[in-house]
Amino acid sequence: MTVPLKAIDGNADLEALMTDLAVKARAAARVLALAPPEQKNRALAAIERATRANAPAILAANAEDVAEARAAGITSAFLDRLTLTPARIDGMADGVATVREIADPIGTVTESWRRPNGMTIERVRVPLGVIGVIFESRPNVAADAGVLCLKSGNAVILRGGSDSFRSCRAIHDCLVQGLREAGLPEAAITLVPTRDRTAVGLMLSGLNGGIDVIVPRGGKSLVARVEAEARVPVFAHLEGVNHVYVDASADLDMAKSIVLNAKMRRTGVCGAAETLLVDRAAATSLKPLVEMLLDAGCEVRGDDAVQKVDARVKPASDEDWDTEYLDAVIAARVVDGVDDAIAHIHDHGSHHTDSIVAENARTAEKFLSEVDSAIVLHNASTQFADGGEFGFGAEIGIATGKFHARGPVGAEQLTSFKYRVHGTGQTRP
Amino acid sequence: MTVPLKAIDGNADLEALMTDLAVKARAAARVLALAPPEQKNRALAAIERATRANAPAILAANAEDVAEARAAGITSAFLDRLTLTPARIDGMADGVATVREIADPIGTVTESWRRPNGMTIERVRVPLGVIGVIFESRPNVAADAGVLCLKSGNAVILRGGSDSFRSCRAIHDCLVQGLREAGLPEAAITLVPTRDRTAVGLMLSGLNGGIDVIVPRGGKSLVARVEAEARVPVFAHLEGVNHVYVDASADLDMAKSIVLNAKMRRTGVCGAAETLLVDRAAATSLKPLVEMLLDAGCEVRGDDAVQKVDARVKPASDEDWDTEYLDAVIAARVVDGVDDAIAHIHDHGSHHTDSIVAENARTAEKFLSEVDSAIVLHNASTQFADGGEFGFGAEIGIATGKFHARGPVGAEQLTSFKYRVHGTGQTRP
């Protein structure tokens, strides 16, 4: 890789470059779709080795990115996401090993049946094709997304944040080395070789059928732009305004531990709870739940009923019910039973992850049926919204749409299928 | 239904009307998503009864449409598609009964597993939401599509051809009567109550999130427009340029019966074969296959080798390899074995349905693996590309894309899923 850091001159040149990348990725996708599991796993093993062996080069490239970003005066949260450490590179390599170990989804027969005329019909998993991944400052996404696409037989075009360009390039070198060692086409994992931001818009156009799906990884503004502009399908969630509803039938100790975990385990993840709904009939539970959150350092913004239980509660505004804080802040209100909780979630939720704490099984089933979210939980924390926690081994993100992938998007969700029919000369009457 | 036939004045009014329809359809979709199978089946039974009982009214409305179309000087093929007969109305009612009898997909647990921490995770089928169906002259699509969406728990907005407006309205009256009798919201099956063609563009815009997916039913120009303009997912196939490849290992008698059926059983269906590929090593088979087609009244457009076997063969032009004739015409050429056949299909196919006739199982498996089409068949006719023939009971169409639905789109393919998690107080470490 000797591509210079400067932007390629002019949009016409960039468009030609991107189209060419997509054509090569499409050709690589055809090869990858037919690659046996062992060959893909050989590539994954080589990528893991290369990542560990090239850690010094990755760290050096990252140090340049970090120095440039620091000079530009970026925020400390951004700097934290951008910065790689030996431990983070180890984690990246461990992630590659995990993906190698998960089951290969391609070629799996998910259903098969015999027709009265003797034909057998099989539904077989095949890759989607070429996946475009657009991410921001975290350079490790290049490895995470790259290897998950490889495992699922898809070619991928990676477009990292401009600020992490050198780091991504160093990681990408390891990915390409692994592909090469396994005899797979290098274009199977392509990194957009320019920092020119116009490349993002070109990817969102679909590059004339060159990209089949876009996966954005980053903040809300990136996802919103992708959802608004993409002319191809998008696997994404804009936000996770997730709710925990504590029913009158809830066990208070269980409710406390679930609410605390859902909100405070990690406040910055998309599965974190942002709103607490407490059944009016659970009046005695309200105060201990609110005080527990306040004592744990969580700001509570409540309706009138919640404000009454503790002077530290701040009044909630209308916007609070629609806000994803990603911070130690929670909106809290009292609702009139499970129906009112469902109605609140319908009006304010983001179809991501919602949980009910209840001992009454019928109430719980009603909540699980009627709440229209990718993940609905009964007596468990919303923080389980994660491909690893679901047993998928790895995920490329979480989707809240209803098309194709929904919830944690793992290797299986990155596949399509075909119908394979075996006959003995059947013709249609 | 007392909406006048004239177009609603002005696009602003039409946009308001369509947005209002979509809002009501969305509300109906929420009710329908939770309706028990028995209630939906009661509606289907009532729709069947109403369709049979109202046959005279449907025929009268259709006669008006036909008279108007005839006066406008439309083609006889169009007239045939537009015209309803007592037998066609019976067929429509039988179709409703078939859909009532298929398994209800909603609520089905397609996978479930237990995590090491004791949580159980279930993947449960849920409806997609609001489906927009845009169709042309065949008024029976209103019934076929309406009841399949109902069965799969989706609300539907139907937009029929302007020429079949009165017929669709009469059929829609039966659908609404069935919904009403079963206590389901009438907006669950909505007919766009205007002939104004601007309505199509508004549907393609997605009506501000009011429509989740568009299914076009009609000719290539309609599908092309929908695929180009839709801002929501589309389940469709643009065309079926389907191939039959006759391998050197094929049984000649079987090849003859499959080729004849694939091309000539019905030439106007999307599963009809359009191109015959014959292995160069099957030299003795070429002449009998070509003569059989010619003798059956099929025009054959061949490459040099095919032209040599019979004087009636016309020369194929470059465009022939990419043409969906939907008529008694076939393009035919000789290829160098299965690899060349696969390469030809890659260059010229439409990812719809392709078949290999071969006794060599390894050759067949290679073809089935490498041909990137929704349906690939071994020793069976391409005319089996049909939801009914697959055992789905009914289909809303056939999709060639790789997202969500692929191949025949039946009730199951009109669903999404959610993850339902049951815990006993689990929190994430």
Automatic annotation (TrEMBL), chains A, B:
Which GO cellular component terms are attached?
A: cytoplasm
Q: Cite the Pfam families for this sequence.
A: Aldedh
The record's section on CDD domains has:
ALDH_F18-19_ProA-GPR
Question: Keyword Lipid biosynthesis, does the record have it?
Answer: no
EC number(s) from the headed UniProt entry: 1.2.1.41
Q: List the SUPFAM superfamilies.
A: ALDH-like
Enzyme class, broadest EC rank:
oxidoreductase
Cellular compartment(s): Cytoplasm
Question: What would you give as a GO molecular function for this chain, any one?
Answer: NADP binding
Q: Which UniProt keywords apply?
A: Amino-acid biosynthesis, Cytoplasm, NADP, Oxidoreductase, Proline biosynthesis
**Catalysis: reaction(s):** L-glutamate 5-semialdehyde + phosphate + NADP(+) = L-glutamyl 5-phosphate + NADPH + H(+)
InterPro entries cross-referenced by the UniProt entry? Ald_DH/histidinol_DH, Ald_DH_C, Ald_DH_N, Aldehyde_DH_dom, G-glutamylP_reductase_CS, Glu-5-SA_DH, GPR_dom, Haem_peroxidase
The annotated pathway is: Amino-acid biosynthesis; L-proline biosynthesis; L-glutamate 5-semialdehyde from L-glutamate: step 2/2
> Main location per UniProt?
cytoplasm
Output the GO biological process annotations, alphabetical, semicolon-separated: L-proline biosynthetic process; response to oxidative stress
Segments forming domain Plant heme peroxidase family profile: 121-404
Instruction: Tell me which family the UniProt entry assigns to this protein.
Output: Belongs to the gamma-glutamyl phosphate reductase family.
Q: What does this protein do?
A: Catalyzes the NADPH-dependent reduction of L-glutamate 5-phosphate into L-glutamate 5-semialdehyde and phosphate. The product spontaneously undergoes cyclization to form 1-pyrroline-5-carboxylate.
Which HAMAP family does the entry mention? ProA
What's this protein's name?
Answer: Gamma-glutamyl phosphate reductase
Look up and give the organism this protein is from. Answer: Bradyrhizobium macuxiense
